[in-house]
Amino acid sequence: MNGLWLYLHFPLLPLEIQCAADVREPSILLDEHGARLLLCNDAARAQGLEPGMAVARALSMVPDVRMLREDTRQAAQQLQGLALWSGRFSARVSLQPPCGILLELASMLRYFRGLDALWDNIQQQLRSLELSCMSATGHSPLAARVLALDGGFCAADAAAHLQRLQSVPIERLELDAKLRAQFHGLGFSLLGELLALPRLELAYRFGPGITAWLERLTGQRPDPPVYFDMPAVFLGELPLAYEVERTEALLFGLRRLLSQLEGFLRAHYWRALRLQLDLLQSEGQQSLSVGHASGAQSADIWLELCRLRLEPLTLARPVIGLRIEVTEFRELESGGEDLFSTAKTQAAPAQLLSRLQVRLGEQALYRVVPCEDHRPERSWRKAPLNGALPAQPDTPGLRPLWLLAAPESLSPALVKRSIELLQGPERIVSGWWDQQPVRRDYYVGRWPDGRRGWLYREPAGGWYLHGWFG
Amino acid sequence: MSLEQLLERGAVWRASEAVAEPVVAGLSCGHLELDQLLQGQGWQPGSLVEVLYDTEGCGELRLLLPLLAASQERWVLWVDPPHIPYAPALKAAGVALDRLLLVRSNSRRDRLWCIEQALKSGCCSAVLGWLGDVSPQALRRLQLAAAEGEGLGFIFRPTACKDQASAAPYRLLLEPDQAPDRLAVSVLKRRGGWPLSRRVLSLRQRSLGNRAASLASLPGASAARVRPGG
Questions:
Q1: How confident is the model at residue B227 (pLDDT cuts 50, 70, 90)?
Q2: Cross-chain residue pair B176–A450, CB shorter than 8 Å
Q3: What domains, with CATH codes, occur in chain B?
Q4: What's the rounded mean pLDDT across residues B205-225?
Q5: How far apart are CA B228 and CA B230, in angstroms?
Q6: How confident is the model over B121-146, as a mean pLDDT?
Q7: In B, which residues are within 8 Å of A349 by CB distance?
Q8: Is residue A243 domain-shared with residue A149, that is, in the same domain?
Q9: Which residues from B are below 8 Å from A468, CB to CB?
Q10: Of A176, A191, A218, which residue sits at a domain end?
Q11: A220-231 pLDDT, tens per residue?
Q12: Which residue from A244, A263, A269, A296 has the fewest beta carbons nearer than 10 Å?
């Protein structure tokens, strides 16, 4: 079988998830005792720090370095988040703790129109994650991993991968340190030299473990990875390293969560209709609900909607974490939308409506429909944006285009003196059954300046203006 | 320097010699007499139309009704109308109520934002917005948004705003007329023409836009459209 795998190695993951927005500042990750450096970012390396160094020495070299504690639970959670994110590229994803994920690509090549297009797509999406990453393809899972750790590689066929594996230095291999020292002592420095040796001899001298490893590497021995099960619900959480007091500063972390959501949605062929965004605070949280009229997958669309929602918001307390939960899903209709065609014209109305709803509130947008009631103020009602309108009865008689929200009282003297009644009366008697009876004579009247209004007289003799023929 | 000398040097531009700009067919506003005042027999797409009037009831909606009734597919947005648009009357006028969307915003800032977004999106055939006193910059933004989305924006403002600068390519001042179904219109500004003084237009003479000529030549076609006046 011609397999093709992609290994993504995030060497600084435990560090970078904790210092999201400020990768330019030197930052280091300490081990569990707080004594030695586990990881350094590029800025720290540039100032001479390196993993394994004692904290005291590091502090003497760079006094203002940011020190972060290792948080294994959080790192594992973020690795799962990355697996969700990669759901957009492959349905078969395997977690390779602590810092890697493995994707099966062979079955996806046709869908993404070839390896080159897929590779470009992946690299582009990786850049938007803003995480350090080394990626490589491989004809076996282990080959992909070895090549990723060796700096990266991309090819489609097994021969090219075997060729490239020859030149991997043995010291980069994840083998037992003692074994590596033995190879070194024998004068071997490249993987190619090991591969050239007779396997039986190798097994006899170094134990069967090494031959099994080499066979997994070359693809001679099956090595199925354990696949990650996409969860059925999405719940993304991201702690922030800083306390954030302004909503704009939340967008960076939000983008990361929403791109995980996009991967999750693409893997399930779902679109999200409504998200709940929780801003976690030291005490309690603020929750926002954000909706999209027709449902969307794209992280960009959701980010814009969340931004609109966050803009007018004042934070009660500084935010220390973000959580996103999808509360409403819908299946992606087949043929309605696909990855390659941007159906802008169809998506645009839904986009616009969602944007307005998010900013102004759901109640601010509605449609109007006539309904069966003779009382003018009850012969219309609000209807929601989506779905077909109910049957619309015809109303007999001439009706104005504007209806006043509340009838306006007119003095009888004014009506008599200056309003010319053009049409009427139209008697409306109704509503005796629900305690809001109406008994009115409606007229069309002309005001002195020529405007036409809709006015009525009550049996008691009072006159009211109820509408304008706009 | 005399006028002749200036003319010889080509330093004076004469309106009579102006080369007519190619006329783009406009979107018929549905009223025969108003269409005839507009270049291209209608509103040019992608423009803002500023409608100035003082109080409701002078015909400000009837002016737009034929256009609104013609939009069956795309959305028509009404942003902060002063009263309730009365559904039974709109239905009787043939307006597609399933595509008519009302928006209630809380502040002037939201209102402008909402109109701008709707115009920009290009998915609304018309956006109607009731604005009071707004800055010329805000109107300019709306005009740019309308040009981007190639829709029509109708901005309703009080007549007190008539002396303010406005980026809208069309500005109409409406006044009620004594006769029903008539409306006094002063064109303060229009594309491809000079301002026009106050004139009374009939709202009954419906036009069919650019197809009017061919359809009107059929016997009985015009009779079906134009109701007897009076």
A1: very low
A2: yes
A3: 42-225 (3.40.50.300)
A4: 42
A5: 7
A6: 89
A7: 74-75, 121, 123
A8: no
A9: 55-57, 83
A10: A218
A11: 888 888 888 878
A12: A269
What pLDDT was estimated at residue A285?
86
**What are the tokens at A173?**
């291999």
Residue A345 near chain B (CB below 8 Å): yes
Is residue A171 domain-shared with residue A252, that is, in the same domain?
A: no
Tokens of A183: 């190879």
B89 vs chain A: nearest CA distance in angstroms? 5
3-state secondary structure of A107: helix
**Which pLDDT belongs to residue B80?**
92
Predicted local confidence at residue A19, as pLDDT: 64
B143-201 pLDDT tens trace: 999 988 888 999 999 988 888 888 888 999 998 888 878 888 999 888 878 888 888 88
Of A249, A251, A313, A237, whose CA–CA distance to A280 is shortest? A237
The secondary structure element, H or E, covering residue A457 is strand A452-457
**Is it the case that residue B216 has pLDDT exceeding 50?**
no
Cβ partners under 8 Å of residue A223, min gap 6: A140, A141, A142, A216
Contacts of A27 (CB under 8 A, 6+ apart): A15, A18, A19, A40, A41, A43, A44, A65, A66, A67, A68
Candidates A129, A150, A153; CA nearest to A5 is A153
CATH code at position A266? 3.30.1490.100
Q: Where are the beta strands (DSSP E) in A228-305?
A: 235-244, 270-281, 285-296
Q: How confident is the model at residue A23 (pLDDT cuts 50, 70, 90)?
A: low
Residue A210 belongs to some domain of the structure: yes
Cβ–Cβ gap A470/B58 under 8 Å:
yes
**What per-residue confidence (pLDDT) applies to A359?**
85
Cα separation of the two ends of chain B: 59
**For residue B92, which of A397, A427, A376, A387 has the smallest C-alpha distance?**
A397
Q: Which domain holds residue A415?
A: 400-468
Taking residues A123-129, report their average pLDDT: 84
Considering only CA atoms, which of B131, B125, B126, B142 is closest in space to residue B82?
Answer: B131
Residues A10 and A84 in one domain: yes
Three-class SS state of A463? strand
Last residue of a domain, one of A187, A218, A249: A218
- Tokens found for residue B18: 């102006």
- Can you say whether the dihedral through the CA atoms of A307, A313, A317, A318 is positive or negative? positive
Segment 448-467 of chain A within 8 Å of chain B by CB:
449-453, 467
Same domain, A425 and A295: no
Please report whether residue A391 resides in a domain: no
Within a domain: A9: yes
Residues of A in contact with B116 (CB under 8 A): none
Structural domain count of chain A: 3
Instruction: Look up the CATH number of the domain holding residue A88.
Output: 3.30.70
Q: Taking 50 as the threshold, does the pLDDT of residue B218 lie above it?
A: no
Interface confidence, given as ipTM, is 0.80
CA distance B208 to A96: 68
Domain identity same for A211 and A304 = no
Closest CA in chain A for residue B75 = A349
Residue A102 pLDDT > 90, yes or no? yes
Q: Please give the average per-residue pLDDT across A438-454, as a whole number.
A: 88
Q: Is residue A365 part of a domain?
A: no
Task: Give the pLDDT score at A6.
Answer: 92
Rounded to the nearest 5 degrees, what angle is found at the Cα of B113, between the Cα atoms of B112 and B118? 100
Structure tokens at A230: 């996409």
Q: Which of A117, A151, A115, A118 is nearest to A132 (CA)?
A: A151
**Structure-token pair, residue B159:** 């007549």
A115 within 8 A of A109, measured Cβ to Cβ: yes
Alpha-helix residue ranges (DSSP H) falling in A341-389: 344-360
Q: Are residues A429 and A289 in the same domain?
A: no
Determine if residue A338 is left, alpha or beta; phi over 0 gives left, psi from -120 to 50 gives alpha, anything else beta: beta
Same domain, A409 and A317: no
Shared-domain flag, residues A90 and A214: yes
What global pTM score does this model have?
0.60
Q: From the list A348, A380, A388, which residue is nearest B122 (CB)?
A: A348
